[in-house]
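Run log // design_07
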C-alpha cells in the first residue's frame, strides 16, 4: 500500500464526482442554508434578553457548532454510501481491481475522496463559526479543536458508510443502513443510558436524608461516550470564567450561555456520580477520549471490512451483482 496509489484513486473519484453531479450548485445551496441559519440564530439570541451576559458570541458558537455537526453527519452517508456497490452496478469497479492497486489503496482512496468532500462542506460553514471568534468571544484555539473533532467524526461516518457499500449489493440499501447506523450513534447511547438507569434505579438508590434518595449513574457513563454530540461538547476546551458588572451587581458567565460547556458538565457529572463538585471538572473526568477512541476504532474496523470485500479473485459473486 502506497500513498501514490491512494492518491490516484482519490483523484479519480473526485473527478468522477465533479463530472457526474452538480456539485457547485449543491455546495452553494449548502453554504446559503447553513450560514443563513447561523445568522437567524444570532438574531434570535440578540433578541432574547435572558441569553446571558457577555454578548451573544458564546451561545451562537455552541449552537452553530452543534447544528453543523448534525447537518454534516446527515449529509455524509450520501458521500460514501454508494462508493463501492455503485461502481459495481456501473461495472467500473472491476477496472480498478484488475490493476496493481491493492484493496487497501482502493478503499482508502475512495474514503479520502468522500472525507475530503465532507471537510469541504464543513469549511463552507466557517463564516458563521468564526464570527464569534472575530468578536473575541471565543478563542481561536477552541474553535480549531472543535472543527478538528467534527472533521474526525465526518471521517468516521464516511468509513462506516463505505463499509456498508462494500458489504451490501444495492446502493439504496447501503445508504439506508448508513443512516440507521448514524441514527444509532446519535440516539442509541442516550437511550441505552436512560434504560440502564431506569432498570437499576431500585438497586442503586442510597438513603441520603429524610425522604431523599439519589441514584448512582456513574456505572453507566460509558454508554454516553460514543455519541458524537457528547464527544464534540466534552472535547471543546472550557471557556474561562468572566465577570460582568451591570450597575452595582457583578455577574459571572452563566453555564447556560455555553451550550457545549453545559453538555460537557452534565456528562462529567454523570461520570463522577453523586459526589460531583465543581472541583471535579478536571481532565481526569473527561469522557471524550473514550468516545472518540470508540468511534475511531469503528472507522478502522469499517476500513478493514471494505478492504476485505475488495479482494480478488472473487470465489462467490452475490446474486444480481455486475462484475464488469
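design_07 sequence
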Amino acid at each position: 500500500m502506497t500513498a501514490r496509489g491512494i492518491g490516484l484513486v482519490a483523484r479519480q473519484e473526485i473527478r468522477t464526482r465533479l463530472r457526474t453531479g452538480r456539485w457547485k450548485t449543491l455546495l452553494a445551496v449548502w453554504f446559503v442554508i447553513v450560514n443563513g441559519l447561523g445568522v437567524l440564530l444570532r438574531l434570535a439570541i440578540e433578541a432574547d434578553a435572558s441569553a446571558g451576559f457577555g454578548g451573544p458570541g458564546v451561545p451562537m458558537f455552541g449552537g452553530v457548532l452543534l447544528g453543523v455537526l448534525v447537518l454534516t453527519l446527515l449529509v455524509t452517508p450520501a458521500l460514501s454510501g454508494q462508493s463501492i456497490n455503485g461502481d459495481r452496478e456501473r461495472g467500473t469497479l472491476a477496472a480498478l481491481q484488475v490493476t496493481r492497486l491493492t484493496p487497501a489503496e482502493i478503499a482508502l482512496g475512495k474514503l479520502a475522496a468522500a472525507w475530503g468532500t465532507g471537510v469541504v462542506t464543513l469549511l463552507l460553514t466557517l463564516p458563521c463559526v468564526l464570527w464569534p471568534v472575530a468578536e473575541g468571544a471565543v478563542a481561536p484555539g477552541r474553535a480549531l479543536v472543535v472543527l478538528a473533532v467534527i472533521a474526525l467524526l465526518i471521517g468516521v461516518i464516511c468509513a462506516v458508510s463505505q463499509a456498508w457499500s462494500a458489504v451490501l449489493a444495492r446502493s439504496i440499501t447501503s445508504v439506508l443502513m448508513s443512516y440507521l447506523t448514524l441514527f444509532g450513534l446519535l440516539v442509541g447511547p442516550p437511550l441505552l443510558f436512560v434504560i440502564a438507569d431506569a432498570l437499576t434505579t431500585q438497586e442503586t438508590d442510597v438513603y441520603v436524608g429524610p425522604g431523599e434518595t439519589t441514584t448512582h449513574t456513574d456505572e453507566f457513563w460509558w454508554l454516553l461516550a460514543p455519541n458524537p454530540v457528547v464527544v464534540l461538547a466534552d472535547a471543546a476546551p472550557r471557556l474561562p470564567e468572566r465577570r460582568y458588572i451591570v450597575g452595582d451587581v457583578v455577574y459571572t458567565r452563566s453555564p447556560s450561555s455555553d451550550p457545549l460547556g453545559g453538555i460537557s458538565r452534565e456528562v462529567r457529572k454523570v461520570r463522577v456520580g453523586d459526589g460531583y463538585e465543581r472541583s471535579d471538572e478536571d481532565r481526569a473526568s473527561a469522557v471524550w477520549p473514550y468516545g472518540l477512541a470508540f468511534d475511531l476504532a469503528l472507522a478502522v474496523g469499517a476500513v478493514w471490512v471494505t478492504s476485505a470485500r475488495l479482494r480478488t479473485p472473487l470465489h462467490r459473486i452475490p446474486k444480481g451483482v455486475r462484475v464488469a
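Confidence is low (pLDDT under 50) at residues 203-208.
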